[in-house]
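Customer escalation, tier 2.

The customer says the design service returned an amino acid string that "doesn't look like it belongs to this structure." They asked us to rerun it and document both sides in this ticket. The original structure tokens are below, unchanged.
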């Protein structure tokens, strides 16, 4: 998606939010869409030294995140559900639990943690919104492996009515001042994003490009930028290398982002593209809110392509985007 198109989608989503009223599901969908577009634009702005736009986008993103993690449906309450599964079959059990939760409420986000004290276990914290009376038992969880359920007071997530409008006004003011054609091609944007992420995390990262990005669709910039930022933030530990390679075949184009970092735990590979899924220990300007790889997958599939990931713990990861030429 081009920058102009992305800005237009942001404006459309904002107008939709103003019109959504008390329609909780519609508001949630619009907020998720808006959050992704703002997150993408923030990454571009930061990578290109547009610090005022990046700061305004981050503030706007904070407000949107507060709304994302609030019960938007009238009468809904917010819970943190903690659970633990065996690594061997956690994928099946986790999906089953999500389906159970979704049957009566809404799973907002999930955060996994490998249990270092209990070998072979994967722990999850799930943010869950559900309509329920005070003191009412959440019956759908009675026969599951849930360890604990904690309700979060709505006071922690409430926002003044004008907070969203104020944050958007600051963001919009920076958009108005955006210079013409402020961002470069795929390689330029990916390299700038990677170097900015390395600087922000204090890591020593070398970058290498292979092939040519000439005549490559601008819609591919955002997915590649996400993969490079992800490689720096989650892959490289203190120092390492990231390679961005573009190859053209008879009827396909492949873009591969490879790092020589920590790799991905095999038990997590099937989950990393799930919306709201995050392995970050804390939220930063770069990551931690469960947005990124799901955007990559969605964007590439919308272009008729596919995403493949290969990884070995301790040796690094490789993400390959394959698209029609």
């Amino acid at each position: 998606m081009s920058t102009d198109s992305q800005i237009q989608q942001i404006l459309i989503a904002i107008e939709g939010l103003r019109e959504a009223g008390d329609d909780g599901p519609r508001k949630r969908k619009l907020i998720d869409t808006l959050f992704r577009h703002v997150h993408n634009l923030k990454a571009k702005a930061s990578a290109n030294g547009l610090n005022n736009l990046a700061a305004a986008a981050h503030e706007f993103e904070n407000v949107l995140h507060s709304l994302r993690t609030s019960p938007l449906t009238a009468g809904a309450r917010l819970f943190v559900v903690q659970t633990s599964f065996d690594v061997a079959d956690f994928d099946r059990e986790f999906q089953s639990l999500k389906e159970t939760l979704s049957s009566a409420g809404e799973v907002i986000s999930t955060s996994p943690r490998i249990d270092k004290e209990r070998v072979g276990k994967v722990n999850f914290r799930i943010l869950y919104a559900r309509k329920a009376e005070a003191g009412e038992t959440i019956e759908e969880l009675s026969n599951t492996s849930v360890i604990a359920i904690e309700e979060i007071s709505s006071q922690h997530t409430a926002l003044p009515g004008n907070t969203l409008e104020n944050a958007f006004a600051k963001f919009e003011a920076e958009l108005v001042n955006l210079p013409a054609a402020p961002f470069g091609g795929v390689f330029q944007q990916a390299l700038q994003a990677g170097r900015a992420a390395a600087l922000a995390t204090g890591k020593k990262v070398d970058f290498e490009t292979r092939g040519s990005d000439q005549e490559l669709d601008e819609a591919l910039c955002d997915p590649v930028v996400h993969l490079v930022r992800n490689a720096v933030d989650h892959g490289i530990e203190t120092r390492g290398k990231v390679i961005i390679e573009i190859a053209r075949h008879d009827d396909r184009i492949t873009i591969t982002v490879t790092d020589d970092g920590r790799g991905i735990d095999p038990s997590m590979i099937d989950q990393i593209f799930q919306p709201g899924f995050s392995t970050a220990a804390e939220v930063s300007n770069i990551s931690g809110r469960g947005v990124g790889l799901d955007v990559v997958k969605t964007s590439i599939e919308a272009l008729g392509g596919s995403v493949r990931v290969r990884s070995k713990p301790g040796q690094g990861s490789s993400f390959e985007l394959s698209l029609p030429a």
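Tier 2 assessment: The sequence is consistent with the input. Residues 186-324 form a domain with the Heat Shock Protein 90 fold (CATH 3.30.565.10). The chain has three domains: 3-70+159-176, 76-156, 186-324. Sent an explanation to the customer and offered a walkthrough call.
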